[in-house]
Amino acid sequence: MAASLGFKGDLLAAIPGLRAFAMSLSQNADRADDLVQETLVKAWDKQSSFQPGTNLKAWLFTILRNEFYSQMRKRGREVQDSDGLLTARLAVHPSQPGRLDLDDFRKALEQLPEDQREAIILIGASGFSYEEAAEICGCAVGTIKSRVSRARNRLQEILDISGEADYGPDAIAAQVMGSTVS
Amino acid sequence: MTRQSSGASSAGPIRRRDGEPLGANSEIGRKLKQYYDELVSDDVPDRFAQLLSQLEEAEPAQQKD
């Protein structure tokens, strides 16, 4: 039975990360905790299908993500499709020029379509590799990469960050013209 | 905050490494971590530990093999 204690302990240890991911996805504390609860129940029921030695965190994140999308479908809400999305770009103006407030960032993150938000969170914050993120989201590695980069560009647009010139039109123009960027 | 103003020419090229589109030094990358770390460090309500104990009582972990 030591194994069961181990599994329970592993689940307990994973909860803070699961809650953070659930919050990032749902943007709502109550829904996030419901998602985590549902994930723990499912994980417990399915524990025999977990391969010890493989990435438990990725396995749990997959369950949570599936639960999130299945709840969204049940609620009859269209899953946002970032390609077809026509949202007005709401600029968030930093309260202090040159300083990016965490609240501004949060608001900007909320404006991202779910698929982009989850990709940038998994890669940029949860510490997963592109391969792991692709597995969690059930898509190709290239899809994750392009979602992350679209998310990043979008955040930069919303937050009006001009200091990071690596993606800016100037940098691209410079490359196209073959001039040396230095 | 002594962020270099946009002059890429004086700051040198910011290279985008392939595996790292959110380089640790990018503002977005930093904020993302800050946002997430705050969520991760949030206190976990007891109900989750209680839930796991209930699950364990109701259905002890299956012996594997």
Automatic annotation (TrEMBL), chain A:
PROSITE patterns in UniProt: SIGMA70_ECF (PS01063)
InterPro entries from the UniProt entry: RNA_pol_sigma-70-like (IPR039425), RNA_pol_sigma-70_dom (IPR014284), RNA_pol_sigma70_ECF_CS (IPR000838), RNA_pol_sigma70_r2 (IPR007627), RNA_pol_sigma70_r4_t2 (IPR013249), RNA_pol_sigma_r2 (IPR013325), RNA_pol_sigma_r3/r4-like (IPR013324), WH-like_DNA-bd_sf (IPR036388)
Organism in which the protein naturally occurs: Aminobacter niigataensis
Gene3D superfamilies assigned to the protein according to its UniProt record, in alphabetical order: 1.10.1740.10, Winged helix-like DNA-binding domain superfamily/Winged helix DNA-binding domain
Keywords associated with the record: DNA-binding, Sigma factor, Transcription, Transcription regulation
UniProt cross-references to Pfam families, sorted A to Z: Sigma70_r2, Sigma70_r4_2
Name of the protein: RNA polymerase sigma factor
All copies of domain RNA polymerase sigma-70 region, residue ranges: 16-77
NCBIfam families per UniProt: PRK12516.1, PRK12547.1, sigma70-ECF
From TrEMBL, chain B:
Region listing for Disordered, in residue ranges: 1-29
Name of this chain's protein: Anti-sigma factor NepR domain-containing protein
InterPro entries: NepR (IPR041649)
Domain Anti-sigma factor NepR span(s) in chain numbering: 25-59
Highest taxon of source: Bacteria
